[in-house]
Amino acid sequence: MPGDTKGLLSADVPALGLTGRIHWTKGSPAPEPGAEPGSEPAYILIHGIGVSHRYLARLHAVLAASAPTYSLDLPGFGGTPKPGRQLSVEDYGAFIADTLASCGIDSYVLVGHSMGTQFAIEAALRAPEQVKQLVLMGPVVDSRHKNVWRQSLALTLDGILRESPTSNAIVMSDYFRCGPRWYLTELPVMMKYPTEKRLAGIQVPLLVLRGSRDQVAGPDWSLRLSRTVVQGRLVEIPGVGHVAQHMRPKAVADAIRSFVTATTPHR
């Protein structure tokens, strides 16, 4: 079925008074406090607003074939408990960094999608020694879409014109699980987050990745973000929209792995 993630192991993860969930494959080391550090950085996949790890599952499977890979369901999303207050992007970044530390994952590549790119930026700022590279897929909010109407229109057009029935089924069912109250609670947080300004504080290599037909993260915006960091790069996946990682998981994984290899210092 769309979004079937059988084969993934999962565990609830409490941090900072919040509860999320971490998912991993049988081939990746189980996340646990005091675990021996791995010989290579892990990939950490972070979803966007309203959704969950499920629309990242195909990318997760490809990356996990060659490196430890973990996906998160953040508090309030993916069936996790709803927090009692609005959470800022900084709150989510702190949750990610603290969760990974508590799970014994101390060296990683952060891979965020859509609003997950904002969460990834904040997690990278929170744990600069642990983050080796930062990957932003379909980053928001494009400077062309600085109000809710324009952002919603771009997302709707992308879903209708660019995405597959399976990706839409995953996203819509996750929106249903999230519910309108929490989605609308976090939407203004996403809209007001100064992505470009916060990204300027990042010191690790940066990959900005977008589908060439993405209505949400446009080419000019994505290029500008890639130039914010000294070691920044932009890659476009041909022929796909905002959820490129579901439509072309191998191409996205290949771009990420190539970038990580090229920007990892050789001893």
Write the layout of secondary structure elements.
Elements lengths: L7 E8 L2 E8 L16 E5 L10 H8 L4 E5 L15 H14 L5 E6 L1 H12 L4 E7 L10 H14 L3 H14 L1 H13 L2 H5 L6 E6 L7 H8 L5 E6 L6 H4 L1 H15 L4
Parallel strand pairs: 3-4, 3-5, 5-6, 6-7, 7-8
Antiparallel strand pairs: 1-2, 2-4
Helix pairs in contact: 1-10, 2-3
Report on this structure.
This protein has helices at residues 57-64, 89-102, 115-126, 148-161, 165-178, 180-192, 195-199, 219-226, 244-247, 249-263, and strands at residues 8-15, 18-25, 42-46, 69-73, 108-113, 131-137, 206-211, 232-237. It is α/β, with parallel strands linked by helices. It has a single domain, classed as Alpha/Beta hydrolase fold, catalytic domain (Rossmann fold, 3-Layer(aba) Sandwich). The chain has an 8-stranded mixed β-sheet with strand order 1-2-4-3-5-6-7-8, sandwiched between helices. Helix 1 packs across helix 10 (249-263) and helix 2 (89-102) crosses helix 3 (115-126).
